[in-house]
Amino acid sequence: VAPRPITFLSDYGYADEFAGVCRAVIARIEPGARLIDLSHGVPAGAVRQGAVSLGNSLPFTPAGIHLAVVDPGVGSERRAVAVEAAQDGRILVGPDNGLLWPAIERLGGAVRAVDLAASPFRLDPVSRTFHGRDLFAPVAAHLAGGAKLKDAGEEIDAATLTRLELPQARVGPGRAVAHVLHVDGFGNVALNVGSGQLAGGFLDRASASASASPSDAKQGDTVMVQAGGSKLRARLGKAFADVPPGEAVLYEDSSGSLAIAINQGSAAGRLGVAADDEVVLSPGG
Amino acid sequence: VAPRPITFLSDYGYADEFAGVCRAVIARIEPGARLIDLSHGVPAGAVRQGAVSLGNSLPFTPAGIHLAVVDPGVGSERRAVAVEAAQDGRILVGPDNGLLWPAIERLGGAVRAVDLAASPFRLDPVSRTFHGRDLFAPVAAHLAGGAKLKDAGEEIDAATLTRLELPQARVGPGRAVAHVLHVDGFGNVALNVGSGQLAGGFLDRASASASASPSDAKQGDTVMVQAGGSKLRARLGKAFADVPPGEAVLYEDSSGSLAIAINQGSAAGRLGVAADDEVVLSPGG
Amino acid sequence: VAPRPITFLSDYGYADEFAGVCRAVIARIEPGARLIDLSHGVPAGAVRQGAVSLGNSLPFTPAGIHLAVVDPGVGSERRAVAVEAAQDGRILVGPDNGLLWPAIERLGGAVRAVDLAASPFRLDPVSRTFHGRDLFAPVAAHLAGGAKLKDAGEEIDAATLTRLELPQARVGPGRAVAHVLHVDGFGNVALNVGSGQLAGGFLDRASASASASPSDAKQGDTVMVQAGGSKLRARLGKAFADVPPGEAVLYEDSSGSLAIAINQGSAAGRLGVAADDEVVLSPGG
């Protein structure tokens, strides 16, 4: 049987060999497993941002073993886990700090889970600060090779897995108070509100006219975006080039979130926002 | 038949999962295709820099499918294309914004091309802002697996492909007005002039003496480099260590361009130049 | 016979296609060889930092061909070498500038070595500034494919390989004068002293109480860390979360070095240190 593919996401960054050493550990145990690096650029210790990124990615990956490490509590009492999701027998491997939770939810919930602390697959010795190398990567490799989940650790109640609490947007008539879910490398700002949540509200007018050229746009097609002391007038649209360079567009991004971008610029820079900051949307402006 | 290899270059950067998700989409469609990441560090939206990088890279890669995404106009009316080049049946996949052009030229020109907008290989739905994931990656994967180009989209006239206009250097007797083609991560500055273009001029003296130690160098072996308000005296040489640390060398770089480096330093930082800036070379100094 | 795996570490960074082009050259020569990127984030020209990183990584990789390029003297008279280590027939390929030395030592020393300057496996022509592409990568690929070391270049005396001189820590009673070996992307500071070297000294008290909660810690469990004009009081511990967020911990890191971290912060930033800086440790504070 061919080994299952392994996806790998972490906050190890690119300055060091941390991600590379995990790749090496996997290659040593299961040389034939295809390893797909999703990203190692999650900001250091940013569990929530890693969780969002993982949840957005997994629906596009092959079903397999999904290794994720953003683990500021490594070496503390937080659990290390492997979790089987309902869909496709996918198995997620990582710290039980909420990182895996949105992905688990998208994959139909957790079917079963094991605690990896005393996993027979771990390297010996296990360092206190690099569980990616010593615990998570070897477990992922063995699972990719066909090992059973129950043999990877001690069974735990899947209902006890740590959930991720994300801030909730409040959408009222003509006004939405949202939060920054993610800022990407282009400076685009994803909000914790889907365009569907705004249906029946002021965004309805957008879908009717968004495909028109900017010069055809009606007054109602603009939204005032406020964050901290900054204000930005954004046009409703579907793609960056729907507005002239340097202007702002409010659109549904590729993960289904409402997002703000500056065509050929950085919306995050202009608004001065980072993950979790509050953003208020109101029509017109 | 084994799938063809896929090379992948983009401006998706390393902070996000964008490149990783494209890798995942490819692995899902064509698990056996070898994927070679060329770079995802092209500056955001820098079509010209991505084009230069792609053109310099492809002659060293296996023949296969060559995926490239630097696409500030994603979701607008710019075309998405797959282009077969004259050499080795190589196929380039990406936006028709000039990004692919220098590579196509180096590979003997375009033999045929298709518009991918309604490609049967695209994911459904196609987002408006992430064609790498939804359009280009799946098309590349299917082509790697043996799909025919004509089945990937609607045939278009290859003569209509967007060309990249690069600034042209002016080389006169004893003076060359060039432009910065590329600044690499070491701060080395590649110019849009090949050392061959300066043959018969002041650079001839260089080749005769460049292998001599710096202390043997004659007065004529130096070149004055001017950019903006900055001036730099560079010695003609072949490698960084031909000059002492902190000094400048003018040399033919690994892609055949004339380039300026500071041994163990940054020439771009010293000169204060970026891509497209004008640089004037004159002998002596 | 299946090709041997190749690991790859360099200072090529992620802004350019340099590492990608080397990957492509390898894939062209030996398409079936598994390539494991360890890191390309070694600071430009930082031979010592690359050497430490390579030495820490290789014990965790599959045995194979180990390509490493941090090469500020490329094109000068420094030798290009391939070196067979005592363990597992591993072969290291790179510049003979000390980069390979700590790894060679960890792998039992050098058994034999060849000079690659005129290797039959090199590309033609060989550029003067990109030996990764033109010399090291093709040699690594051929060796992975089964070529013999003696056919890769001209045999040289392994005793003449360049060694890396690292600064030595001075450990006295109640005081250790160490140096920064490495700063990682999280800002954790590894020192050139192992926790074993401090046995019998003030660090013994740490191991007894480190698993206790910080509030239980005795006065003797703290260490004063001095670097330049900065002072930092660190608690002895085993993992980041052994101290509250924003506080410092002195621990044995995953490569066996004594290291300083700030829980959820940057110790390097707080101390203002970089590689090779002197750090003085004394008990209490």
Task: Characterize the structure shown.
- Three copies of one chain form a homotrimer.
- By secondary structure, chain A is of the alpha+beta class.
- Helix content of chain A is 19%, strand content 29%.
- Chain A contains six helices and 15 strands.
- Chain A has helices spanning 18-29, 47-57, 101-106, 131-144, 204-209, 267-271, and strands at residues 6-10, 35-39, 65-69, 80-85, 91-95, 110-115, 154-156, 170-172, 175-183, 189-194, 222-227, 230-236, 248-252, 257-262, 278-283.
- In chain A, helix 1 packs parallel to helix 4 (131-144).
- The radius of gyration of chain A is 21 Å and the shape is elongated.
- In chain A, 57% of the residues are buried.
- The model of chain A is unreliable at 205-220 (pLDDT under 50).
- The A-C interface holds A 12-21, 23-25, 27-28, 31, 44-45, 72-76, 78, 127-130, 133-134 and C 5, 7, 9, 14, 34, 36-41, 53, 56-57, 60-62, 184-186, 238-242, 251-254, 263-264.
Short description:
Chain A has about 280 residues and is of the alpha+beta class. Chain A is about 20% helix and about 30% strand.
Can you summarize the main beta sheet of chain A?
7 strands, mixed
Query: What proportion strand of chain A?
Result: 25-35%
Query: Which blocks of ≥5 consecutive residues of chain A have pLDDT under 50?
Result: 205-220
How would you classify the quaternary structure?
A: homotrimer
How far the N terminus sits from the C terminus of chain A, by CA atoms, comes to 61 Å
Rg of chain A, rounded, reads 21 Å
Q: What structural category arises from helix and sheet content of chain A? A: alpha+beta
* Average residue-wise pLDDT of chain A: 91
Sequence of secondary-structure elements of chain A = EHEHEEEHEHEEEEHEEEEHE
Count of separate DSSP helical elements of chain A: 6
Helix content of chain A: 10-25%
The most extensive interface between chains reads: B-C, 33 and 30 residues
Counted beta strands of chain A: 15
Large-scale geometry of chain A: elongated
Largest sheet, spatial ordering of strands of chain A: 2-1-3-5-4-6-7
